[in-house]
Structures are given as structure tokens and as C-alpha cells.
Design a protein that fits this description.
By secondary structure, this protein is mostly helical. It is built from four helices and no strands. The longest helix has 14 residues. The chain is globular, with a radius of gyration of 12 Å. The model has no long low-confidence stretch (mean pLDDT 95).
């Protein structure tokens, strides 16, 4: 999947969370981040914190890879 903005990143996070059958509350408790943060992330809030977003992706088993376009 190609992520081009906060919205597509959030959609990928939501999709994976649901594939794992995790509720936002469970992910919040497990990660130590608030449910509102997770909700904002999944809804594509553009000012979301990058470090926390990457940690959530890692918890969900999403690898982030940056590649130059050719």
C-alpha cells in the first residue's frame, strides 16, 4: 500500500487493527496511548505525532519503508 497522506496512513492502521480484531480501547491499554489519539490517527488528523504513530504501526505489525520514487 502506498501512503500519501495522514488519511491513507490512518486507513491502513484502522484496517490492520480490525484484521487483528483489536478494539481501540485494547490498543490504547496495550500501547499506553489514549483512545482519542488512536481515533485521531485512524481518522487522518494531519497534526498527529509521528513518533507515536510509528509506534502504533509497529505494535500492529505494520512495517514502514521509505523508498525514493523513480
Amino acid at each position: 500500500m502506498t501512503v500519501t497522506d495522514a488519511k491513507s496512513f490512518g486507513e491502513a492502521v484502522r484496517k490492520r487493527r480490525k484484521e487483528l480484531d483489536y478494539k481501540q480501547a485494547f490498543l490504547s491499554e496495550f500501547s499506553g496511548m489514549s483512545v482519542s489519539f488512536i481515533s485521531d490517527l485512524e481518522n487522518g488528523k494531519p497534526t498527529i505525532e509521528l513518533d507515536k504513530s510509528i509506534r502504533i504501526a509497529n505494535i500492529l505489525g505494520i512495517d514502514l519503508v521509505l523508498m525514493e520514487r523513480k
